[in-house]
Each structure stands twice: as structure tokens, then as C-alpha cells.
Amino acid sequence: MTLRKIKFGKIAVVIFLTVLIWVWMDMSLDVELRVSNATIMVAKSDPNLWVSFNGKSSVTIDDIELKGPATITSEVNRKLKTGSQRLEFFLDAGAEAMDSPGEYSLDVLGLLRKSDLIREFSLAVQSCDPKKLTVSVVELFKKSLDIECFDENGTPLVGVKSIEPSKVDMYVPIDSRLKAQVKLTQIEIEQARSSVAVKTPYVVLAAGQTKQAGRTVEIKISPEADSLIKHTIIGAKLAIALSMNLQGEYKVDVTNNDNVVSSFTILATDDAKEAYENQPVQMILFILDDDKKKGPDEEQQRKERKVVYNFPEEFVRRNEIMLEDPQQAAVAKFKLIPLSSAPTSSSGTE
User: Fold this and answer.
1) How far does Cα 38 stand from its chain's mean position?
2) Where does a domain end: 199, 226, 253?
3) 305 touches 262 (CB < 8 A)
4) Cα–Cα distance, 107 to 121 (Å, whole number)
5) CA distances to 23, 53, 137 from 134, in Å
6) Residue 339 DSSP code
7) Residues 216 and 250 in one domain
8) Looking at residues 272-280, what average pLDDT do you find?
9) Are residues 235 and 327 in the same domain?
10) d(CA 110, CA 195)
11) Digit-coded pLDDT (tens) for 128-187
12) 17, 49, 191, 203: most buried, per Cβ within 10 A?
């Protein structure tokens, strides 16, 4: 019995030591793991600041080299491939001493190395690409903004009867002309027609970056909102709004005038459409002081700008007239010709 016990004891010790050696070897043998499509996102920060990566709320890191024990790297790799784990990192502007307006250079490698996610993995970050990122910090100022209403597809809602309050205080860049927005689902639109829909406005600072207002608004939509119909406008008249500083010095040659004033479609009530067509001009092209700046060659002297549709203000306020597709406003191409060298007539060709 004694000999048998001794033999089993020795075997158990050998097995234990063998396992211990294998575990130690695995822990001591670091392997590399290369991953891509990691994301760095801007964490919530001071509401008076807009922190972004050149206007974007997040940026993709194309290549990260991790290093650690084989068992850990293998498990992390498995989770990444199955989608049960994502490499998402956060930029805390305050923690990075980026809490005042300006542009900063972010050490990406340093940010990754001290992230909670990497510590949780028990891995080391060896390298990454890109190594540096530009972080922009813009100071925001409280302004009273008008509110626009859209449906789920981003189409402006017609027949908005009232928005209470009609303006909302929000933090935006000081030179911004942004408007606050609310987006209503179809159910909410029906609710706004029968009673009111309550929504929180927001402002879009850049693609993927929004800030919400600190209060809600009540929206009512006229039950007759569906009365807006499509109208095709033909023979519109285009007016040039030339800067006072350029008047008497330059002539404006709109090189694609025929395309600009060609037919376009609006959504409007019959009254709004008639009032629009009876105006002296239907479209306005604004020419600014900076437009006189010349490029090194003839092609770069050509300018282009979206025209402004001169819809009657009273119908605009009631959302009774708009372009069918606001994103498809006509673009006028033009050149400024000094009056001292301007020909007696414009060719009107591109």
C-alpha cells in the first residue's frame, strides 16, 4: 500500500509540474496579432465645446499590432472574427488636455495603450496606423435657433401649423447658420395632425455629430397638409444679386443659364404656386466679394454656386411651398468679367 501511494504521488507531481511548465511556456511565449477596422470615437465632453476629427465624430484605425500570450491573442482574435467583440476606443478631450479651442495632434499609440479595453485584454499595443490624428476643438455659443421638421426619410414636412416654442436655445459655432431639427415618424406625423407631437430638437454639427436641445417642443400639422401637389415650373426668371463692392466694376456671365432656368418641380398649394410664378423673379444668384479673386488660369476663374429659390415668404412660413427635392437645387456656373474688357454681349455658353 505504501509503495502504491508513493507511485501515485510521484505521478501526480509529475503531471502537475508538466502542466505548470506548459502554462508557463504559453504565458511566456508572446505572439503578435494584427487587427484592423478599430474605431476611435469622441466621448461626451463639455457642452460648450465641439470636439471632432476634422468634423467627424469617429475615425477608423486601419492597422493595430497587438502582442501577448498565445491563449489570450487567440481568444481575442476569435471574438473579433465572430463579432462578439469590437475594438472601440474613446477620446476624452479633457483627459488629453484638449479642453480649449484649437487644433491638437493626438498620439494614437499612447491613447490605445492606456485604454481600459487593452488593459482588459491583458495585451500590449506594439504599433498602429495612423500614428497621429488631428483633433479639432471648437467653442460653442448659445444661440436661439429656428426649428425645421422632417420625416423619417429626411424630407421636409409640409403643412406644419405651429411649433411651440418656435425657437430653441442651442450651442453652435459662433458663425453658424444652422437650424434646429426634429424628425417625426409616420405615427408621430399622424399624431401631430390630430393633436400634437412632442419631440426634442437637435442640431447637426457634422455628419454623425448631433447635439440635443435641453427641452422639447410641441408640433402641430394641418390636417390639410396632403393638399400640396407637384407643380412643374417652366420659364423661371433668374436675378443676379451682385455685391455692392462689385457693382460698376464687373459683369456676371452665367455660362449655363439655360440649364439653371430649365423646368423644375415644386411641392405647393395652388395659391402658393400662383404667387411664386407671379413674382418678378423666381431664382436668385448671389455674387460675393470673394468671387472676384482670380485663379492662375481661365478654368480656375470659373465659379459655381447654388441658386436661391425666391419662394414667397408667407407660404414658406406655412410650409406650403418647397422644392420637391431640396438637395437638387440648380447650380449656376459663372464668371466675373471686368467692365473695362467686357464684350458687348455674352455668349451664354459653357
Assistant:
1) 20
2) 226
3) no
4) 21
5) 43, 6, 10
6) T
7) no
8) 95
9) yes
10) 54
11) 999 999 999 999 999 999 999 998 888 888 778 899 999 999 999 998 889 999 999 999
12) 203
Pick the range with the lowest mean pLDDT from 117-121, 218-222, 223-227. Answer: 223-227
Of the candidates 160, 158, 107, which has an alpha carbon nearest to the alpha carbon of residue 135? Answer: 107
Residues 215 and 204 in one domain: yes
Residue 26, C-alpha cell as written in the block:
504559453
Q: What is the CATH number of the domain that holds 321?
A: 2.170.120
Residue 210's domain comprises: 143-226
Give the amino acid at 100: S
- Residue pointed to by grid coordinates 459655432: 173
Q: Specify whether 254 is located in the same domain as 316.
A: yes
CA 203, chain centre distance (Å): 10
Taking only Cα atoms into account, the Rg of the chain, rounded to an integer number of angstroms, comes to 31
Please report whether residue 23 resides in a domain: no
Look up residue 36 and give its three cell numbers. Answer: 484592423
Cell of 115: 485604454
**Cell triple for 332:** 449656376
Would the pTM of this model clear 0.90, i.e. be above it? no
Cell numbers at 195, concatenated: 393633436
Q: What is the dihedral of CA 137, 142, 147, 151, to 10 degrees?
A: 30
- Closest by CA position to 143, among listed 174, 117, 122: 174
Pairing of strands 38-42, 88-91: parallel
Bridge partners, 250 (sequence order): 338
Domain count for the chain: 3
